[in-house]
Amino acid sequence: GAVVSQHPSRVICKSGTSVKIECRSLDFQATTMFWYRQFPKQSLMLMATSNEGSKATYEQGVEKDKFLINHASLTLSTLTVTSAHPEDSSFYICSARVRGLRGGTGELFFGEGSRLTVL
Amino acid sequence: GENVEQHPSTLSVQEGDSAVIKCTYSDSASNYFPWYKQELGKRPQLIIDIRSNVGEKKDQRIAVTLNKTAKHFSLHITETQPEDSAVYFCAARLSGGYNKLIFGAGTRLAVHP
Fold first, then answer.
1. Cα–Cα distance measured from residue A98 to residue B94, given in angstroms and rounded to the nearest whole number
2. Which of A38, A83, A114, B36 could pair covalently with A91 via S-S, beta carbons 3.0-4.6 A apart?
3. C-alpha angle with apex B63: B103 to B7, nearest 5 degrees?
Protein backbone atom coordinates (compact mmCIF):
# COMPACT_ATOMS: atom_id res chain seq x y z
CA GLY A 1 0.00 0.00 0.00
CA ALA A 2 0.89 3.65 -0.19
CA VAL A 3 3.11 5.11 2.52
CA VAL A 4 2.38 8.21 4.51
CA SER A 5 5.07 9.40 6.89
CA GLN A 6 4.53 11.79 9.76
CA HIS A 7 7.12 13.60 11.83
CA PRO A 8 7.76 14.02 14.69
CA SER A 9 6.14 11.03 16.35
CA ARG A 10 6.34 12.65 19.76
CA VAL A 11 6.85 16.22 20.82
CA ILE A 12 6.80 17.93 24.17
CA CYS A 13 6.68 21.69 24.29
CA LYS A 14 6.08 24.51 26.71
CA SER A 15 2.84 26.39 26.80
CA GLY A 16 2.83 29.33 24.41
CA THR A 17 5.22 27.86 21.89
CA SER A 18 4.37 26.67 18.38
CA VAL A 19 4.84 23.17 17.06
CA LYS A 20 5.01 22.03 13.45
CA ILE A 21 4.03 18.54 12.33
CA GLU A 22 4.90 17.27 8.87
CA CYS A 23 2.98 14.78 6.80
CA ARG A 24 4.57 13.32 3.68
CA SER A 25 3.30 10.96 1.03
CA LEU A 26 6.39 8.92 0.16
CA ASP A 27 5.46 7.04 -2.96
CA PHE A 28 2.51 8.89 -4.40
CA GLN A 29 1.22 12.38 -4.96
CA ALA A 30 -1.56 13.57 -2.72
CA THR A 31 -3.52 16.60 -3.82
CA THR A 32 -5.64 16.25 -0.71
CA MET A 33 -4.60 15.36 2.81
CA PHE A 34 -6.71 15.22 5.93
CA TRP A 35 -5.74 16.12 9.47
CA TYR A 36 -7.37 14.32 12.37
CA ARG A 37 -7.15 14.75 16.09
CA GLN A 38 -7.62 11.91 18.54
CA PHE A 39 -7.99 12.23 22.30
CA PRO A 40 -7.28 9.19 24.48
CA LYS A 41 -9.84 6.44 24.00
CA GLN A 42 -11.80 8.54 21.56
CA SER A 43 -12.45 8.58 17.85
CA LEU A 44 -10.64 10.39 15.09
CA MET A 45 -12.09 13.84 14.67
CA LEU A 46 -11.54 15.50 11.33
CA MET A 47 -9.95 18.90 11.81
CA ALA A 48 -9.32 20.09 8.28
CA THR A 49 -8.81 19.15 4.68
CA SER A 50 -5.50 20.21 3.24
CA ASN A 51 -5.43 21.07 -0.43
CA GLU A 52 -2.27 21.47 -2.45
CA GLY A 53 -1.82 25.02 -3.64
CA SER A 54 -4.86 26.45 -1.89
CA LYS A 55 -6.21 27.23 1.54
CA ALA A 56 -7.21 24.45 3.86
CA THR A 57 -10.85 23.78 4.63
CA TYR A 58 -11.54 23.62 8.35
CA GLU A 59 -14.28 21.73 10.12
CA GLN A 60 -16.74 23.57 12.27
CA GLY A 61 -15.28 24.49 15.63
CA VAL A 62 -11.66 24.22 14.56
CA GLU A 63 -9.75 27.50 14.83
CA LYS A 64 -7.88 28.11 11.60
CA ASP A 65 -5.58 30.67 13.24
CA LYS A 66 -4.73 28.15 15.92
CA PHE A 67 -4.07 25.23 13.62
CA LEU A 68 -2.22 26.49 10.57
CA ILE A 69 -2.13 24.12 7.63
CA ASN A 70 0.13 24.46 4.64
CA HIS A 71 0.11 22.12 1.67
CA ALA A 72 2.93 23.53 -0.40
CA SER A 73 3.63 20.51 -2.56
CA LEU A 74 1.97 17.33 -3.76
CA THR A 75 3.84 15.30 -1.16
CA LEU A 76 3.93 17.51 1.92
CA SER A 77 1.36 19.02 4.24
CA THR A 78 2.22 20.67 7.54
CA LEU A 79 0.14 21.40 10.62
CA THR A 80 1.38 24.09 12.98
CA VAL A 81 -0.19 24.34 16.39
CA THR A 82 0.35 27.97 17.35
CA SER A 83 0.64 29.23 20.90
CA ALA A 84 0.04 25.75 22.20
CA HIS A 85 -1.76 25.19 25.49
CA PRO A 86 -2.15 22.05 27.60
CA GLU A 87 -5.63 21.46 26.16
CA ASP A 88 -4.01 21.09 22.74
CA SER A 89 -2.25 17.97 23.94
CA SER A 90 -3.50 15.18 21.73
CA PHE A 91 -2.63 12.63 19.07
CA TYR A 92 -2.61 14.28 15.64
CA ILE A 93 -2.84 12.03 12.59
CA CYS A 94 -2.66 12.95 8.95
CA SER A 95 -3.97 10.90 6.07
CA ALA A 96 -3.90 11.01 2.33
CA ARG A 97 -6.17 9.59 -0.27
CA VAL A 98 -4.70 7.84 -3.26
CA ARG A 99 -6.46 8.26 -6.52
CA GLY A 100 -6.31 5.46 -8.98
CA LEU A 101 -4.83 2.92 -6.56
CA ARG A 102 -6.80 -0.27 -6.11
CA GLY A 103 -9.14 0.64 -8.88
CA GLY A 104 -9.85 4.07 -7.51
CA THR A 105 -11.38 3.17 -4.17
CA GLY A 106 -10.06 6.34 -2.63
CA GLU A 107 -8.63 4.41 0.30
CA LEU A 108 -7.13 6.59 3.01
CA PHE A 109 -3.63 5.88 4.24
CA PHE A 110 -2.63 7.22 7.61
CA GLY A 111 0.61 8.58 8.96
CA GLU A 112 2.07 7.21 12.16
CA GLY A 113 0.59 10.03 14.20
CA SER A 114 2.21 12.68 16.35
CA ARG A 115 1.65 12.77 20.07
CA LEU A 116 1.80 16.34 21.31
CA THR A 117 2.20 17.10 24.98
CA VAL A 118 2.02 20.71 26.05
CA LEU A 119 3.38 21.43 29.50
CA GLY B 1 -23.79 17.72 10.43
CA GLU B 2 -23.32 14.25 9.05
CA ASN B 3 -22.34 11.59 11.54
CA VAL B 4 -21.60 7.91 12.03
CA GLU B 5 -22.82 6.01 15.06
CA GLN B 6 -21.05 2.87 16.21
CA HIS B 7 -22.04 0.17 18.71
CA PRO B 8 -21.01 -1.31 21.00
CA SER B 9 -18.30 0.85 22.51
CA THR B 10 -16.68 -2.19 24.13
CA LEU B 11 -16.92 -5.86 23.26
CA SER B 12 -15.43 -8.79 25.11
CA VAL B 13 -15.43 -12.28 23.61
CA GLN B 14 -13.76 -15.61 24.17
CA GLU B 15 -11.18 -16.80 21.69
CA GLY B 16 -12.91 -18.61 18.84
CA ASP B 17 -16.19 -16.77 19.21
CA SER B 18 -17.54 -14.28 16.68
CA ALA B 19 -17.64 -10.53 17.11
CA VAL B 20 -20.06 -8.14 15.45
CA ILE B 21 -19.79 -4.36 15.38
CA LYS B 22 -22.56 -2.21 13.93
CA CYS B 23 -22.63 1.27 12.44
CA THR B 24 -25.23 3.60 11.03
CA TYR B 25 -24.61 6.67 8.92
CA SER B 26 -26.65 9.74 8.14
CA ASP B 27 -25.51 10.83 4.67
CA SER B 28 -27.66 8.79 2.28
CA ALA B 29 -25.27 9.64 -0.57
CA SER B 30 -22.28 8.03 1.13
CA ASN B 31 -20.83 5.33 -1.11
CA TYR B 32 -17.72 3.99 0.59
CA PHE B 33 -17.46 2.38 4.01
CA PRO B 34 -14.07 1.30 5.35
CA TRP B 35 -13.23 -0.36 8.64
CA TYR B 36 -10.01 0.42 10.46
CA LYS B 37 -8.18 -1.40 13.22
CA GLN B 38 -6.07 0.65 15.60
CA GLU B 39 -3.69 -0.77 18.14
CA LEU B 40 -2.64 1.31 21.09
CA GLY B 41 -0.54 4.31 20.07
CA LYS B 42 -0.44 3.30 16.42
CA ARG B 43 -1.99 4.46 13.19
CA PRO B 44 -5.33 3.10 12.00
CA GLN B 45 -4.95 0.27 9.51
CA LEU B 46 -7.57 -0.53 6.90
CA ILE B 47 -8.85 -4.08 7.35
CA ILE B 48 -11.76 -4.19 4.93
CA ASP B 49 -13.99 -1.84 2.99
CA ILE B 50 -17.19 -1.97 1.02
CA ARG B 51 -18.74 0.16 -1.65
CA SER B 52 -22.40 0.99 -1.92
CA ASN B 53 -23.00 -1.19 -4.97
CA VAL B 54 -22.16 -4.32 -2.97
CA GLY B 55 -24.13 -5.84 -0.11
CA GLU B 56 -21.46 -8.03 1.40
CA LYS B 57 -17.72 -8.56 1.21
CA LYS B 58 -15.57 -11.16 2.87
CA ASP B 59 -11.85 -11.52 3.44
CA GLN B 60 -10.91 -14.67 5.34
CA ARG B 61 -12.24 -14.25 8.90
CA ILE B 62 -13.53 -10.75 8.31
CA ALA B 63 -16.74 -9.77 6.55
CA VAL B 64 -18.70 -6.58 6.14
CA THR B 65 -22.37 -6.23 5.26
CA LEU B 66 -24.13 -3.12 4.02
CA ASN B 67 -27.81 -2.23 4.02
CA LYS B 68 -28.14 0.98 2.05
CA THR B 69 -31.85 1.33 2.67
CA ALA B 70 -31.36 1.27 6.41
CA LYS B 71 -28.03 3.15 6.17
CA HIS B 72 -26.48 0.46 8.25
CA PHE B 73 -23.28 -1.58 7.93
CA SER B 74 -21.62 -4.16 10.12
CA LEU B 75 -18.27 -5.82 10.68
CA HIS B 76 -18.17 -9.53 11.42
CA ILE B 77 -15.07 -11.26 12.75
CA THR B 78 -15.24 -15.03 13.05
CA GLU B 79 -12.95 -17.38 14.98
CA THR B 80 -11.54 -14.48 16.95
CA GLN B 81 -7.96 -14.61 18.16
CA PRO B 82 -6.21 -12.64 20.92
CA GLU B 83 -4.34 -10.63 18.28
CA ASP B 84 -7.71 -9.32 17.07
CA SER B 85 -7.86 -7.29 20.28
CA ALA B 86 -7.77 -3.60 19.30
CA VAL B 87 -10.03 -0.64 18.69
CA TYR B 88 -12.09 -0.87 15.52
CA PHE B 89 -13.48 2.17 13.75
CA CYS B 90 -16.10 2.26 11.05
CA ALA B 91 -16.23 5.19 8.69
CA ALA B 92 -18.35 6.61 5.92
CA ARG B 93 -17.18 8.75 3.08
CA LEU B 94 -19.32 11.82 2.65
CA SER B 95 -20.59 12.81 -0.75
CA GLY B 96 -19.46 15.98 -2.43
CA GLY B 97 -16.52 18.24 -1.73
CA TYR B 98 -13.34 16.40 -0.89
CA ASN B 99 -15.04 13.11 -0.02
CA LYS B 100 -14.19 13.41 3.63
CA LEU B 101 -14.15 10.34 5.81
CA ILE B 102 -16.16 10.54 9.03
CA PHE B 103 -15.42 8.00 11.75
CA GLY B 104 -17.57 6.24 14.29
CA ALA B 105 -16.70 6.45 17.95
CA GLY B 106 -14.84 3.15 17.94
CA THR B 107 -15.28 -0.27 19.52
CA ARG B 108 -12.71 -1.66 21.91
CA LEU B 109 -12.58 -5.41 21.25
CA ALA B 110 -10.99 -7.71 23.79
CA VAL B 111 -10.49 -11.36 22.86
CA HIS B 112 -9.73 -13.54 25.87
CA PRO B 113 -7.75 -16.76 25.51
1. 16
2. A38
3. 40
Please give the average per-residue pLDDT across A60-78, as a whole number.
92
Instruction: Tell me the one-letter amino acid at A24.
Output: R
More confident site: A3 or A100: A3
Q: For residue A59, what are the CA distances in angstroms to A8, A36, A62, A73, A103?
A: 24, 10, 6, 22, 29
Phi/psi of residue A56, each to 5°?
-75, 155
- Separation CA A111–CA B38 (nearest Å): 12
For residue B9, give the amino acid letter. Answer: S
**Interchain pair A46, B102: CB under 8 A:** yes
Q: Give chain B positions within 8 Å (CB) of A44.
A: 44, 89, 103
| Contact between A107 and A54 (Cβ < 8 Å) | no
**B3 near B104, Cβ under 8 Å?**
no
Q: Which residues of B touch A111 (CB under 8 A)?
A: 43
Residue among A44, A106, A112 whose CB faces B89 most closely? A44
